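Lab notes, practical 5.
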Amino acid sequence: MKAITYSKYGNPDVLEMTEQPQPKVGPGMVLVKVKAASVNPVDWKIMAGYLDGVMDLQFPAIPGWDVAGVVESVGIDSRKFAPGDEVIAYGRKDFVHGGSFAEYIALPERLLARKPKSLDWNESAGLPLAGLTAFQVLRRLEVKAGETVLIHGGSGGVGSLGIQIAASWGARVIATASEKNHGFLRSLGAEPVAYGEGLAGRVRALSPDGVDVVADFAGGNLEATLQVLADGGRHASIADSDVEEHGGTWMWVSPVGADLQELADLVDDKKFRVEVAKVFALAEAADAFRLNMEGHTRGKIVLSVD
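Output from the prediction step:
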């Protein structure tokens, strides 16, 4: 099968299109024919060697954890899915090797969920990691109807889904972004504020008594978070471990298929948007990585594999 691989740590120049063996499908596994896969910052951070101290990697490595595709075959005692089923997954395995930037990927069936009917393939590929991150953070923070939630990084892949999830649970949402994206935030159900110097004052102007919950999906916002958090409020970050020293929670998304299915059902019920910034062909993976590394896109960067 065709796959994007790299055989040493480095920048996007180490990526190349190669022929690789089709993955084996063991007990409890599912082979998925990939339709689309999305690029996440963790993909190029692993490729650059930044996570070498915490992630085992086997070269040649196929990057990619987000996938949307069709079940090709199932392994022994795999009973939840059948050939032809349309599925999505946050396909993080125990070590980095056989990722989603390929024609096929084999995954444990416990990681899979059924593709939302309301999303196309590219949108579906952008949902798992970003959506699960937002979903698990907001659930850990026990967001309730009537509460006010501040989301840092509202226009990004995670933040844009976090806005919609919190709003669907009945929360009032305030979200940060550059002014050019304020219309986008309003369309998702958030009250926008500009990030940067003076942020706490702008949030207090909208919510004088402070906010009940802060979800930091961008990093570098601890000081502002503490300034606007109401007494007894809860906060978490996916980008700043220092929150733990101030009563917050530092989180990293977990690959749980049951959570992803709950999210996919919520997407179909509430007709969430998954913003896709740009779609690249599989052979253009290096360009997709470079765009993601710039860090200024609104929404997801996707590789169309089929």
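Observations recorded by the TA: The radius of gyration is 19 Å. Residues 131-250 form a domain with the Rossmann fold fold (CATH 3.40.50.720).
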